[in-house]
Amino acid sequence: MRYPRLTRRRGAGVPDGACAPDGTPDDRAARLRSRRTAALVAGGALTATAGIGLVSCGSDGSGGADRGDGRANGSGPKLTIVDPYIPQPAKDGIAAGYLVVRNDGDTADRLVAVSSPLTPNAALHETVDTTMAHLDGVDVPAHGRGVLARGAAHIMFTDTPGPLRKGDVVDVTLVFEKSGSVTVRVPVYGIADRPGDPGTETMTVPVAPGGGAASDAGAVDGDPGRAGGHAD
Questions:
Q1: Bridge partners of 189?
Q2: 172-198 as b/e, with b when 16 or more CB fall inside 10 Å?
């Protein structure tokens, strides 16, 4: 009896990884394995690359980082000098200055020093009971006020070269820890006068970021942050 001759059709009848009847690996299976391996390697490389890109974007710390003064994210101090004035001194050679520092920003600041061409002896003082003491600074809280007023913290001018009289103007430079410095023209009022009283003026001097006046002084009648009235 004759048996039909068995033939192997190319690419059929041999499972992946099997051998041909002669014992040699099937060439199609080898090609499939090679293609799968290449695809897996390529896919893994793409995934790894994507992961690196994500880490790189997430680790960039340059955008919006706060430097401690709040300026990088736009939330630093926003200061305005309100109603600076000097009452006419009762005696020559000494005077006191008062004002309010209003902070409309999200970051606190601190008034750390003052100076004036009127005298080299201008400093921050504080009245404690009936005596005065040097003050190393005045805090200006975020969305709050730093107040220099009669009977409390104030600017003390000593050894002034001549008498100060109502109507005089004194340049005073205020130095802030974060906002830099600003020079304000401070009027001299009558001995008992305060800003907002009849015959006196009220003013505001916005402090530009980094120091300096942001604009000219302006009237602020009714401003709740002014130094006049009953600030002390």
A1: 87
A2: bebbbbbbebbbbebbbbeeebbbbee
| 207 phi/psi in degrees, rounded to 5 | -95, 125
Q: Is the pTM of this model over 0.70?
A: no
Please compute Rg for the chain using Cα positions: 39
Q: Which residues fall within 8 angstroms of residue 48, CB to CB, at 6 or more apart?
A: none
User: Which helix H or strand E contains 103, and what residues bound it?
Assistant: strand 94-103
**β-sheet bridge partners, residue 123:** 156
Sequence-ordered list of residues with C-beta below 8 angstroms from that of 209, at least 6 positions apart, any chain: 71, 76, 179
- Tokens matching residue 220: 């602020």
| Beta-bridge partner residues of 145 | 102
DSSP string, 25-61: BPHHHHHHHHHHHHHHHHHHHHHHHHHHHHHHHHT--
Whether the CB-CB separation of 67 and 170 falls below 8 Å is answered with: no
Tens digit of pLDDT per residue, the chain (232 long)? 454 444 444 434 434 444 444 544 455 555 555 565 555 444 544 343 344 333 333 334 444 444 555 555 568 999 999 999 999 999 999 999 999 999 999 999 999 999 999 999 999 999 888 788 999 999 999 999 999 999 999 999 999 998 899 999 999 999 999 999 999 999 999 999 999 898 888 899 999 988 888 754 444 333 434 444 333 3
3-state DSSP call for residue 141?
Answer: coil
